[in-house]
């Protein structure tokens, strides 16, 4: 399978169950690194945007939607065609966790890598 369609990283997410560690991670990214906050729901999630547009999502103990991440970061790979890439990967036996999701002009799909880590394909709406 070719990886020609992977352009870079478009997303990094991490879920932190411990409330104090979550708050410390948020403070590090917001206060020490000065990342721009684009969404903040106390003890549930804080989304940051880097200058190149990449998003960093930190999910806390009140978040129940990203429990599948476990204690590992979820990396989003930017591709031209999420559905096409997903179909090729599924044909190779890769397990996708949920249906492909859409929000305006973005599409994404989460899969579990051979190491057990959850990854994400992310890209533009095609067609």
From TrEMBL:
Which InterPro entries does the record match to this protein? Answer: Glyas_Bleomycin-R_OHBP_Dase, VOC_core
Domain (VOC) spans 10-124
- Report the PROSITE patterns cross-referenced here: VOC
| Superkingdom per UniProt | Bacteria
Under SUPFAM superfamilies, the record lists: Glyoxalase/Bleomycin resistance protein/Dihydroxybiphenyl dioxygenase (SSF54593)
Quote the Gene3D superfamilies the UniProt record gives: 2,3-Dihydroxybiphenyl 1,2-Dioxygenase, domain 1 (3.10.180.10)
Record protein name field? VOC family protein
Can you name the source organism? Ornithinimicrobium kibberense
The upper taxonomy is: Bacteria, Bacillati, Actinomycetota, Actinomycetes, Micrococcales
